[in-house]
């Protein structure tokens, strides 16, 4: 594993190819996708926090714009993992409180548009998810797709970028903690892990976190399970942390463990206790790039 240290030379968001700061101009006479009764595209918790930790929750909400109804899905499908990461929002709030950290949470369902994808990824606006066809996402024209990008995708990513820039402007190196959850069974296959730690090349936070969680002795801990963080592109971490050399880690907690307040409280404590002694490590205060080779 190779690494190098460098300075970003400024306080602005990282430059990258993913278009998150230049919305398309609205068409004359367009009816906005989001109305006055719809929730905002993101929520910022503790926006004036003074520490370097930034928590992001890409799949925090199952909300859909009133104008699009249920995308043609019955209510029971919107309660499943295909619509959002069950328990992830509550866990993000608890961790933000534990560390007095800023958190940015998405405001809409991943079925509308997934903020943790490249815009050219065919799953960014999924037509099918875990075997369920999404009627409202079939045969969308370019304008309908652009509405979702402008109303939901870009504002969330810009909000993350603004918080990253604020932390840099304070003279600190941001530490990104991405909070997700995963379904216990996928396509009929049971997943044994209680928690997965996803990472690419930067070992500074994930490797000691894996060790701390395993040392607890109670949990089945996945190293890049049930998904891999290696060589991924277009996600929030890959947009705002990896190219800038900021330390980062993505957590996947099994959803059946955080479906109620008791489970969320337990996992906020488990993760908080594991993370607390790690976040002050000296190597997390350094901008360091780990190139993909």
Give a topology summary.
Blueprint: E1 4-5, E2 42-45, E3 53-57, H1 75-78, H2 88-99, E4 102-106, E5 128-129, E6 132-133, H3 142-169, E7 175-182, E8 185-186, E9 189-190, E10 195-198, H4 206-216, E11 221-223, H5 236-240, E12 248-254, H6 261-275, E13 288-289
Parallel strand pairs: 3-4, 3-7, 7-12, 10-11
Antiparallel strand pairs: 1-13, 2-4, 5-6, 8-9, 10-12
Features:
293 residues; Aminopeptidase; 7-stranded mixed β-sheet; two-stranded antiparallel sheet; 16% strand; disordered N terminus
What does this structure look like?
- Pfam families: FGase (PF05013).
- InterPro entries: N-FG_amidohydro (IPR007709), UCP029730 (IPR011227).
- Keywords: Hydrolase.
- The structure is a single chain.
- With 293 residues, this protein is α/β, with parallel strands linked by helices.
- The chain has a single domain, classed as 3-Layer(aba) Sandwich (Aminopeptidase), CATH 3.40.630.40.
- The chain is 26% helix and 16% strand.
- It is built from 6 helices and 13 strands.
- The protein has helices at residues 75-78, 88-99, 142-169, 206-216, 236-240, 261-275; strands spanning 4-5, 42-45, 53-57, 102-106, 128-129, 132-133, 175-182, 185-186, 189-190, 195-198, 221-223, 248-254, 288-289.
